[in-house]
Structure formats: C-alpha cells, structure tokens
Request: fold
Amino acid sequence: MIDLLATHYNYLVYVALVGIGLYGVTASSNLVTKIIGLNVFQVGIFLFFVTSGYIQGGSPPVVHGHGAETFVSPLPHVLILTAIVVGVSLTAVALALVVRIYNAYGTLDEEAIREVQLND
Amino acid sequence: MTDAVALLVAVPILFALLPVTVGGVWDRAGWATAAVAALVHLGLSLSVAAKVFSSGSFTYAVGNYTPPFGIELVADGVSATLVVLTSVVTVAVVAYARTAGPHSNSFYSELLLLTAGISGVFVTGDVFNLYVFIEITGLATYALVATGDDPAAALASLKYLLVGTIGASLYLLGVGYLYIATGTLNMADLSTLLPEVGYGSPLVLTGFALLVVGLAVKAALFPLHTWQPGAYAESPDSVTAYISALVSTAAAYALFRIVYAVFTPAFDAAVPFALDALVVLASVSVVVGSVLAVLQSDLKRMLAYSSVAQFGLVIAGFAIANSTAVTGGLVHLVGHAVMKAGLFVGVGALASVAGGRTVDDLAGVADRAPLTSAAFAVLAFALVGVPPAIGFAGKWHIVLGAVEGGRWGVALVAVVSTLLTLAYFARVVERMYFRDAPAPAEEVAGDAASPDGGDDTLAADGGETSESAADETVDAEAEAAAGSVSPAARAIVVGAAVAAVVLGLFAVELIDVFEPVLEVYF
Reply:
C-alpha cells in the first residue's frame, strides 16, 4: 500500500479528482458548485494525460538537446493544451448560462428553481 | 479537388465569424451569411460525394503531415452521404429560420459553428480530432438550445452542458487509455496496433468502455438520455429540427467508426461481452424511449423520447456486428435524420396554426393546414416503418441482421418498438384528422358534417373531458393563431416527406453506397 502510494501517487490523485468532480456534479444542488465539480473532473483527466506522458529524467525531443538518452513524447501534453482550451470555453458558456438563469429565477439552487417553475 | 474535405470544416467556421463582426452594421447579415455558407457547404459536400462515388474513398492529410503523425480526414461512402445530409439539412433549416427562427446574428454564427463541428465529426480519421469536433458540436449546441426566450431553455441547456461534457470527457479519457496502449491516435493505425497489444488487455477494454459510454451519452441512450427531452422541448423550433437531425446522428456515427474502424469485428470475436452489453443497453433504450414517448402529451417531448428509441435501434444495429444489421443501422440513421427534422418543423408549423403544441391542440388541424398535415402524417408513418418509406428499409435490415446473428431479442424489441411508435403517432394523426377543432360553436356544427359520421360522439367526448381546460386558451387564440403555415415550413415538411419516401424507394442504391465501406470491416 505504502509502495503504491509512493510510486503511483499521481494515478491515485487522478482517480480522486475524477471521483470528487463527479460527486460535485451529481450531489450538489447549486449550479455553480456543479460547474466547479465539472472542472475538477476535467482536471483529473488532464492530470491523467500529463502524468502518462511524463518520464523521469527524460528531456524534450529538440534537435540541439542536452544529449540526454531518454526523450519524452510531447504529444500528450499538446493534446491537453487543446483540451484545456475546450474546458475553458465550456466553463465560459456554462457561467454565461448561470448568469441568465440567476436573472430569470433569482436563485441558483436547483430545488428552488423547480419550485419557481411549478408555481408559474 | 480533394481540398473540399478540409474546406467542409473550414468554410463554415470562417463564415461564422462574419455575422458577429458585421452584425452591428447590417441587421440581416446573419441570415445572408448563413445562406451563402450553407450553399457553399452544399457545393463542397456534393463535390466530395461525386469524387467518392466516381473513384472510391480517399483520405486527406491536413497540413501535408503524413497520416500516422498528422491528422487524417477520410471521405468514404458513409461519411460522404452524411456530409451531404448535413448540407441539405443546413440549407433547409436556414430557409426555415428566415421566418420562424431566432433572428439574432449570433444565432447564425452558432448554427455555422455547429455545421463545422458536425462535418468534422463525419470526416475525421483521428480519435483525438474527433474529440475536438465533438466538443465544437457540443459547445455550439449548448449555445443554440439557450437561444430560446424562455429561461427554461437556459436551464435545459446547462443541464445538457453538464451531462454532455461528462460524456465527452469520458470519451477523452478513453482516447487516453488507447493512446497509452498503442502510442497512436490515428484510427487506421489504431486498428492495426490494437490486436498487437491484445484485445483482452485491461487498457484496451477500459478504453473501449469509456469511448462507448461517452458517445452513448451524446447519442442519448437510456439511461444517459436525460438531457435530451429538455433540450429538444425548450429550444426554438428551427434549433430543434437541426439538432434532432444531426447532433445525436454525429455521435452515433462516431460510435460506428469507433466500433468498426478502430476496434473492428475482430474485437467482437475476441471479446463478445463488450458488444453484447451494448446490444442490451440499446434494446432497453428502445423500449423505455418508446414507452416514455407514448406517455407524453407535449409533441416536442414525445418526439424527443422517440429519438431515444430510434437511436437505440440504430445502435443495436451497430452492435449486432454483422453486415446486414450495420447497413440497417446506417440507413436508419440517415432516414431518422430526414424524418425527425421534418417532424419537428411540422410540429412548429402546425403549432402556429393550432395555437399549441400538445397532442390535443392538434385536433382538427388537418382542415386548416391540409398539405402540412398530410406531409406530417406521411413522415409519422414513415418513422413507424410503413413500407415504401425509408423507415421501413432501415428497420427491416436491422431485424434481418438480428435474425441472421441469432439475436431474437433485438428482433422482438424492434417489432415491439414499431408497434409503440404506431401507438404514439396514431394518437396524433387521429386527432389531426378525425377530431373537430375546438373552434367557436357555430363552426362545430358545420365540421360535424364531415364524412366520418361515427366520429361525432368521439369528438364530443374529447371536447368535454380532455379539452375543456385547453378550450379557454385556445378560444382566445383561435383568431390570432388562424395564421397559415409559412411557405418555407410547408415546403420543408413536404420536402422531408417526399425525401423519406424517395429515399425508401432508392434504399437499395443507398445500401450500395455503404457496401464498399462495410466490406472493408467484414
């Protein structure tokens, strides 16, 4: 167990982040908390990609490198840069929707919104 | 000429910038740009299709980086057909939105972004690139759903965003597992490298599960469908027509590519459990979707649940994994897009005449909008699967494939779902044709002289029980809503009905187009 913690802590953190994020999305009734949960969930996945592309002592594959023996593929990191951009855009859209929902209902609590809708 | 494949994605994105930049100066810039972009897109997709049909499928290396390292775009019979479908639906929806739709410039920007995203999903040959296009599609869809005036639209959109993003993220995670297992993202490359890793390897299996679950969320399979009814019901009619025709179709197509281009039938042979599970999920989806559709009174919700069922059927076809069933799935995918888009435009058009969009509101609407009602009825029966129409061709092949593969359960589910589809559409058509409109009293007397004398009692019953509540509002709106169906909407519904029948008559040709693609896999 200790061994696992010492060597694979990054994978454990990935699992923890994905779990916490999903919990945040499903368990909370506050819409902003849900969005934060979504972000945590995505960060967990980003961490998974980044950690999979990391090699201890590896160096970037540039032509005039440092004469290192092990090289690291930059592809996972580049992919995650794209995914981070997508994540930021999603958060922006989600927050814009939250602003509109708040203006219309005066609350961000899902249960309260449902009550408002039923009263209409 | 082959550049047309890349331009299919690039042109709508570039045009999408125009409405927001010029919009401040010229009010109608949005519609004009979207119309031009849609026509250019149609030209490009037809040129891609012409090349595929004349000289077979081809690939395109984006930026001249050779495929395993660069991004590859693939045009074959299936993607060319779906890209042409995208263009035709875009042209139709832009024409419809001119009178019906949201008129803001940003709406047209979002519509064009969605066109770009969906075209990208159809032509890409790279799993990560597919993720990016799925997210472009998703972002544009969330924004489009929220264009409705009602704040409920924003809430439905946010719900869709939360569920859709988790789906797409699971897909991304699956891509990660496959990349760790093989070190490549190219679909063709993955299909050769995966057997070397071993189909039984936990990495590959986890990757498969994550990819399938992620795409199942996007395609709205039960129990991951919860976002769909809200998103379809709350968004404006033109948006519903567009996303119902293409967004889930794109996800189902992506699933088809993942299962056959990446994992290939050899995976099914090695790990039969994986696709068996998908068959079960899809079958449950068919039954639950149909039953929920029968229970709905709001027409748009009913059609949304009907989509859950139809996509279940399509994915069941894909998961049966023999050539006949997969062909059936693809035919039904194309047919469903045409029929659902027509049906949603039809609901919008008929609602403008009837003054409401519940099943009971449509009572007697056939007298006031005969052509649109007839086309709507044709589309409804086409989706049920009445023979000459495309709905029959798709379902027939799925059932045939199920029997061939010895999966009697799926064949049974398909038949049951057909009956349930008939149940919820018959209800609507009965109201449209055999009930009198809840109009002022003197008109009822005149209408009652219609040939079907036996329906008088039925109409009277309905008028007293279920329609009594609706009467007050409908009476008030009867004058205002007496406005006719807009010519564009009528043309689209009739066009969709004709297309559904014509496609059905030429289903054999459509299957011939898909055949070379499937031959590679089977």
